[in-house]
Structures are given as structure tokens and as C-alpha cells.
Write a structure and sequence with these properties.
The protein is of the alpha+beta class and 191 residues long. The chain has a single domain, classed as Jelly Rolls (Sandwich), CATH 2.60.120. The chain is 32% helix and 33% strand. Strands 1, 2, 3, 4, 5, 6, 7 and 8 form an 8-stranded antiparallel sheet that branches. The longest helix is centred in the last third of the chain and has 28 residues.
């Protein structure tokens, strides 16, 4: 299977803006991604809350399809929880701001990640994590993305009862999926 995005390109673009204040960094990264991947990246943020694995943060989707997504995720006040265990999805998080702590099953010491570091969560693995004080990442996942949705919305549905975020998650995600499908169809028609 061929994927659209390359984690090394995402990291290179993200790291080229780490010297900026966060308010300038996120739009600069989105703009450079849009130039590198023409017609694919959403540059106007549409933030929504994400409650998953006991953690709360906010998300804006830059790109999503049934097989990949690129998002900004973070919190200005920190959070902690479970990463999720995705049997079929490979997940990477490029730390943009803050300090993130992770630990795996059996670890007695935390792993510390700072801006520019990549946290890789291979298929089938899970970790506990904490965004210390605050944390922001550029996250890239590849695999059957809909298989992640139950974890991504379970807390909103069964814990926080935040039906607004629950429905916004689906609405915004599927809007991006339809948009990426239309682009693929029109690209095939041109060939």
C-alpha cells in the first residue's frame, strides 16, 4: 500500500519552525505542509475537544482519509492518560512544544520527549503518557483509521457525556475523508 505522507518530511517541516511562538508555529507548519502536499492540507484550524484514554486535549485535522491522518493535538494546561492500543495503526507524534513523558508496560522509568523528538507507537503497543504543564504535537497515523475511532470517542460518549465533541469528531473527520476521496477521484480522472 502506498501512503501519501512521509514521517521524515513531516518532521523536517515541523522542526524548521520550532523557534517560533506556538501561535505562529502551528500556522507556519500547516502552510509549509500545504505547499509540500498541494491540495491536501487544511490550513484553517477547526479545533475540537478530544477526550480519549482519560486524557483531554484539543485537535484540528490537517488531513484525514480512511488510511492516514495528520493532526495537531495538544493542551495548554497539560494532561495525562493512555495512548490507546491500535492493533492495525502505526502512530507517530512529533513534539512541537512542551515536555511529554511516556512509559510502556514494565518500564520503571519514564521516557522524556522534547520539541523535535518523535514518539513512535508501533501497531499493537500502548503507553501511558503525560503532557507536563502543556504539550503540542503534530501527529501522523497510518493504517485503517476508522479502527481508532472507538477509542477516540468512548470517553466523550461514556465518561464526559460531551455529545457535542462526539458528533463534531465524526462530522469533521468524515468531511476530510470525503474531501480526500474526491481529490483522489479527480486525480485519477486527469490521468
Amino acid at each position: 500500500m502506498k501512503y501519501v505522507f512521509d514521517i521524515e518530511v513531516l518532521k523536517e517541516i515541523a522542526c524548521s519552525h520550532l523557534d517560533l511562538p506556538l501561535e505562529d508555529m502551528l500556522p507556519a507548519i500547516a502552510k509549509d505542509l500545504a505547499e509540500r502536499y498541494p491540495g491536501l492540507i487544511e490550513t484553517k484550524p477547526d479545533w475540537f475537544f478530544s477526550n480519549a484514554g482519560g486524557s483531554m486535549g484539543q485537535v484540528t485535522i490537517l488531513y484525514a482519509s480512511l488510511r492516514e491522518y495528520v493532526i495537531f493535538f495538544g493542551s495548554p494546561i497539560g494532561s495525562e492518560g493512555h495512548t490507546g492500543r491500535y492493533r492495525f495503526v502505526d502512530d507517530n507524534a512529533i513534539v512541537l512544544d512542551g515536555e511529554l513523558w511516556y512509559y510502556g508496560e514494565g518500564d520503571t522509568q519514564r521516557q522524556v520527549y522534547l520539541p523535535g523528538d518523535v514518539v513512535h507507537l508501533p501497531k499493537g503497543e500502548a503507553k501511558g503518557y503525560r503532557m507536563v504543564d502543556r504539550g503540542w504535537i503534530l501527529e501522523y497515523a497510518r493504517g485503517p483509521i476508522p479502527s481508532m475511532l472507538p477509542f477516540g470517542v468512548a470517553d466523550a460518549l461514556f465518561s464526559t457525556l460531551d455529545l457535542t465533541s462526539f458528533f463534531r469528531t465524526f462530522r469533521i473527520y468524515f468531511r476530510h475523508v470525503l474531501r480526500s476521496a474526491r481529490r483522489r477521484s479527480s486525480a485519477r480522472a486527469r490521468v
